[in-house]
Amino acid sequence: MSGGKKPALVAPSGMRSSRFAIADDEYLVLSYPIEDDIVLPDSLTDAERAVAVLLLRGMSLRAIAKQRKTSPRTIANQSRSIYRKLGVGSRLELGVALRREGSND
After folding, report:
1. Whether the predicted pLDDT of 13 surpasses 90
2. Is 22 helix (H, G, I), strand (E, B) or coil?
3. Residue 2 burial by Cβ neighbours in a 10 Å radius (0-12, 13-18, 19+)
4. CA dihedral of residues 50, 90, 87, 62 (deg, nearest 10)
5. Is residue 73 part of a domain?
6. pTM for this one?
7. Does residue 74 lie within any of the structural domains?
8. Domain with 75 in it: what CATH number?
9. Are the CB atoms for 77 and 87 separated by under 8 Å?
10. In 3-state terms, what secondary structure has residue 20?
11. Distance of alpha carbon 36 from alpha carbon 9, whole angstroms
12. For 23-74, where are the E strands, in sequence order?
């Protein structure tokens, strides 16, 4: 689109979005409300449940620690505990496991 107005970036219905810009280009990052798609098992503590949701949102351990007002080491320990309790080894597997847990209800 040379010289014309750029099209508006609009998120599809039901999707959350955030915008960021690099130089003159604007990008739209879409995410869906993961809380609607997962069930957090009772085997996780309240703190681990909160961390699990933030991990699935793609936040770094450092960003999670800052938001939760604790140390990155604490968040790393809670992450390892979550993975151990659910028998997973990555965030991707965590997402699959939590969706699988929810589909059993």
Report:
1. no
2. strand
3. exposed
4. -40
5. yes
6. 0.65
7. yes
8. 1.10.10.10
9. no
10. strand
11. 24
12. 25-31
Structural contact between residues 35 and 53, judged by C-beta atoms closer than 8 angstroms? yes
Structure tokens at 14: 């039901």
Report the domain count for the chain.
1
Give 35 or 87, the one with higher predicted confidence: 87
Q: Are 19 and 28 contacting, i.e. CB atoms less than 8 angstroms apart?
A: yes
Residue 80 contacts residue 72 (beta carbons within 8 Å) = no
Instruction: State the CB neighbour count (10 A cutoff) for residue 78.
Output: 24
Cα distance between the two ends of the chain:
49
Q: Are 94 and 51 in contact (CB under 8 A)?
A: no
Lowest model confidence (mean pLDDT) among 23-27, 34-38, 69-73, 88-92 = 23-27
pLDDT at 31 over 80: no
